[in-house]
Design a protein that fits this description.
The complex is a heterodimer of chains A (100) and B (494).
Chain A: H1 5-14, H2 21-38, H3 78-82, E1 88-89, E2 92-93
Antiparallel strand pairs in A: 1-2
Chain B: H1 9-18, H2 23-35, E1 43-46, H3 48-63, E2 75-79, H4 106-113, E3 117-122, H5 162-169, E4 175-180, H6 186-192, E5 195-198, E6 218-223, H7 226-236, E7 266-270, H8 280-295, E8 299-303, H9 311-326, H10 346-357, H11 360-373, H12 378-399, E9 405-409, H13 425-429, H14 436-440, E10 445-452, E11 458-465, H15 470-484
Parallel strand pairs in B: 2-3, 7-8, 7-9
Antiparallel strand pairs in B: 1-3, 4-6, 5-6, 5-10, 9-11, 10-11
Helix pairs in contact in B: 2-3, 5-6, 9-11, 9-12
Classes of the chains: A mainly alpha (100), B alpha/beta (494).
């Protein structure tokens, strides 16, 4: 499979990365070179093989159903959460208007 | 008096404990070395006060006659992928410029709890995507090494942990943290003549480490020798309930368990690692490694890992796929940079922010990841790669029936010059050919210096072990270290 300029622009839009036509055209051969190379995986017979979901066998744990069981991942830290926001007002993240 | 910056982790720890020198003297020596080596661009942030505070704490404990912590008095470098409270953490990307974490990563916290101090935050490939440290938004790290041909061509320190490898080999710190997704600890260690180990996936908590590919990312130490790696890894490892993939198993006393005798051990040589166009010197080094492990008492057996050639293409589907998902969080809303063109709506702000904030290689990988996960291509690419990953892990399982540890070269070449490969992403990816398979299988693997090439540049040998058998890997590496007699170091030109 290979990509064309339209596909690159579509993928960039899905990834929320702004690119202009010249950039998209430059990416086409680059991405096709990489995609052509990973295509060789198609020749591996994987019938009856399960996709790997966990690299080292591990059991998922449940923690106690307690508020702020771990203060590092708990709540009540609004100011710390907002401290790095490019823009925050009145205790909220601020973004451009989304509803007219 | 010896230059304190020539000392390794064990020597510093023991010297502080025995009162040979004070921790403050050590910290001051390394702080000076760091500030005198800015030409290398290894550090993004210098934190001399952090190192001094930890040193003074160690000296106070000793003066009071109390027991010192395991890394008391040892100043280290911290890869900028680890979030450090109150100290900017950028993953070497513009999009995180100015980001000051309000919390401490689990791994760095463990190191501070063990008494270590921080000399600064180390440069790296942007979001750990790269093998030469050329994708950093804050400039290349220059390797302290130079070819002995009289030219002064600046060389790559390897990547993505290139600031870590450069800083340790230039004696700017006795040890540094690294992270390894497809070889980012081992390849830079090999390029700079130092040691580095990626432990079993799940040994070190990923909490607070900026994510690249979560099923592969693993932290580990980079230091001058095997013992120092063992000491530092002990401090970094351990169960963390905040990371769902953290392993709830005891941390062995690796330093105490070190044993360079390989009597009764079987060392496997995977025949598929003899790749096309491998330089003769790498092949010769591998042969010397085989002789060294035999000399240490090991039996050498040839093994087959039939799916090896598919590891890299599988990795370059899985890692970008996970990256495209992980890096969705950089949206210009919660942290980092925002680019808001005049009159832009929310979607346009996202796209503009990410276009301005991410470097070219990061964008390339996000696009590949988005493509292979998109409707219609998911099964052909991502599911197939995940199945191939199962087969690669199975290859290793089968190999363990006839051997205890595998010996391979770490990288297919010595350090290359900056700019030599940066125009061809695929050529750069191929640098990880020997390190990626064990990453896909989550296995512990280590690079140890083996010798020099004809240009006087370091070459590394890699050991790959069974899951949770870091001890076996460390011991095999120690056997090589004792026989290789690697004492070369870069001559200070900076």
């Amino acid at each position: 499979m290979s990509v064309d300029t339209a596909t690159v622009k579509k993928v960039a839009s899905l990834a929320r990365i702004a690119i202009d036509d010249a950039h998209a055209e430059r990416l086409v051969p680059e991405l096709n070179n990489i995609l052509g190379w990973i295509e060789q995986l198609g020749e591996v017979d994987t019938s009856g093989v399960a996709p790997m979901t966990a690299v080292i066998p591990n059991t998922l744990r449940l923690r106690d159903d307690v508020v702020n069981a771990d203060p590092l991942t708990g709540g009540g830290i609004r100011d710390a959460v907002l401290a790095n926001a490019p823009q925050a007002e009145h205790g909220f993240f601020t973004v451009p208007k989304v509803i007219e | 008096m010896t230059d304190l910056t020539d000392l390794g982790i064990r020597e510093i720890r023991d010297g502080v404990r025995d009162g040979t020198f004070s921790a403050r003297e050590v910290a001051e020596s390394f702080n000076a070395a760091v500030s005198n080596a800015r030409q290398l661009n290894a550090f993004l942030v210098e934190t001399p006060d952090h190192a001094l505070a930890a040193a003074d704490a160690a000296d106070a404990v000793r003066a009071a006659g109390e027991t010192l912590k395991p890394l008391a008095g040892v100043p280290i470098g911290m890869k900028d992928l680890f979030c450090t409270k109150g100290v900017t953490s950028t993953a070497a990307s513009h999009i995180l410029e100015g980001f000051t974490p309000q919390y401490e990563s689990a791994v760095s916290q463990r190191l501070w709890d063990a008494g270590a101090g921080m000399l600064g935050k180390l440069n790296m490939d942007q979001f750990a995507m790269g093998s030469s440290n050329e994708t950093s938004a804050f400039g290349n790290v220059i390797s302290p090494w130079r070819r002995n041909d009289g030219g002064n061509a600046p060389l790559a320190p390897g990547g993505s942990s290139g600031g870590s490898s450069a800083a340790v080999s230039a004696r700017l710190c006795p040890g540094a943290t690294g992270t390894d997704t497809g070889g980012s600890i081992r390849q830079p260690a090999a390029f700079t003549g130092i040691s580095g180990i990626k432990p079993t996936y799940g040994r070190c908590s990923r909490w607070g480490t900026i994510a690249f590919a979560s099923s592969l990312d693993q932290a580990g130490p980079m230091a001058r020798d095997v013992r120092d790696c063992a000491i530092m890894l002990e401090a970094m490892s351990g169960f963390d309930p905040k990371d769902a993939t953290s392993l709830d198993v005891p941390v062995p006393q690796w330093e105490q368990g070190l044993n360079a005798s390989l009597a009764g051990k079987r060392v496997g040589i995977p025949r598929e690692y003899r790749v096309d166009n491998m330089p003769e010197e790498i092949e010769a080094l591998w042969q010397r490694g085989i002789e060294w492990v035999k000399d240490a008492g090991a039996e050498v057996v040839e093994v087959s890992l039939p799916h090896t050639k598919y590891a890299l293409p599988a990795y370059y589907i899985i890692a970008p796929a996970e990256a495209s998902s992980n890096l969705a969080r950089y949206d210009g809303v919660r942290y980092g940079q925002r680019d808001l063109p005049e009159g832009a709506n929310l979607q346009a702000m996202y796209a503009a922010t990410r276009a301005a904030g991410f470097g070219e290689e990061v964008k390339r990988r996000i696009l590949i990841g988005t493509y292979v996960l998109s409707a219609g291509f998911y099964d052909a690419y991502f599911t197939q790669a995940s199945k191939v990953r199962t087969l690669i892990a199975r290859d290793f399982e089968n190999a363990w029936e006839s051997c205890d540890v595998l010996l391979t070269p770490t990288a297919p070449s010595a350090a290359f010059g900056l700019g030599e490969k940066s125009d061809d992403p695929l050529a750069m990816y191929l640098n990880d050919v020997f390190t990626v398979p064990s990453s896909l299988a989550g296995l512990p693997a280590m690079s140890v210096p083996g010798g020099l090439d004809k240009h006087g540049l370091p070459l590394g040998l890699q050991f790959i072990g069974k899951a949770l058998d870091e001890q076996g890997v460390l011991n095999a590496a120690l056997a090589i270290e004792e026989r290789a007699g690697f004492t070369a170091r870069p001559q200070a030109w900076w």
